[in-house]
Amino acid sequence: MEHPHRLYAIVGLFAVLSLGIIGLVGPTLWAPPITWQLVVAAAILIAGIAVSDLSAIDLPVSRLRITVSVSSALCFAAALTFGPLPGTVIAVAGSLVEDVIDRREPIKLIVNSINCALSTFLAGWVYVSFADLKLTPITTLQNFAAALLAAGAFSFAQSIFLSVILSQAGGTSPWHLWRAAARGLLVEFLALPALGTLYPVLARENPLALVLMIIPLLGPYFAFRNYRQLHHETQATFELLADLLDRRDPYTSEHSQRVAHLAEMILKQFPDLPYEEFEAILSAARIHDLGKIATTDYVLSKPGRLTDEEFAIIKRHPVEGSEILRRLTPYRQIVRIVRHHHERWDGKGYPDGLAGEQIPFGSRVIAVADTYDAMTSNRAYRPAMTHEQAMAEIRRCAGTQFDPAVVAAFERAIAAEVPERQAVPQVLDVAPSE
Questions:
Q1: Same domain membership, residue 285 and residue 193
Q2: 264 & 206 share domain
Q3: Which domain holds residue 171?
Q4: pTM of the predicted model, to two decimals?
Q5: Cα 69 from Cα 48, distance rounded (Å)
């Protein structure tokens, strides 16, 4: 957490605003008369929200834990069925059950409660302002339109609040974070009007029929869970392959991990970089040498300088790696980064001879990280350079081999990290780039 005091201040501000709005406006808004059917419906909703939150699915965003859950549809249903104030109480109660079971830290419990209360209350407020409350949300076009507006208010309030809070916790832009989580937000938004509007109808007929909502809720849940599992397993497999490739040569052990760490240090010097691009570059750095799986051990571990023919074989690995990644949808955004990580700023690199800003930004970042790690590694044909020698060489090649802006960012990153540890981090000590 990079700015804890600012985070606490923002959470406190949202808490005061939410309590103020709900406390002042809530009692003046519509609420249905209490009946046994509604009491049973409320109990089922609370249980459903708690179970849904316990089954939440992580989004494939690596630096922060962002989850998507079908509980949003149930919170939305609470707002439409019971009105803004009672619906908010029900939604927060269900959310608190999950927080208590998971023993969340107080700050996370408060954030979850504010998020649930604010989005549910605003959705209920919008709905009761435009709908005919004597009818169900699907009885007339007016009511259904009001439900759609309420769903938009729910998703907008929830996404903006979480983006602001998580951006403070993760040190990134709220806008970039919002875009990174957009797929999950879309799943939730589509579920809100489709499922939330059915709940008031079922609650009036027979609250026990509310269990029927489990069936349509399972569809988006399992679809997104399978997508997340596939993404996670693919990423883990490729990272394992990268590590196994590094181990083929004792001089390059854990090379990909160190390059990814160095790339992350550089990227943090570009605060306006879109969040999804940050994540894509880190993913590419972690598996940038994947194409070496097609290179023989003799060439990879030769204890001397390579011949022209052998170097031509090595030069194919960026293309081989990009072709492997091109076949997998989750990795298509990093294909060009992997393909061009050996291009040079002056256009004399490979495989395509790109120059300057024609080279993807991520490739330029990886080029600096990769080369530094290579120079500070022991090789069979030469000892490792010192940190000072490697930095001098990188400075000398700024504007020819490397993007000068990336070199400057690397220097700033190193300067910021060294005082913290009173030395160059151990992660900066190894592995080569051919």
A1: no
A2: no
A3: 4-229
A4: 0.65
A5: 11
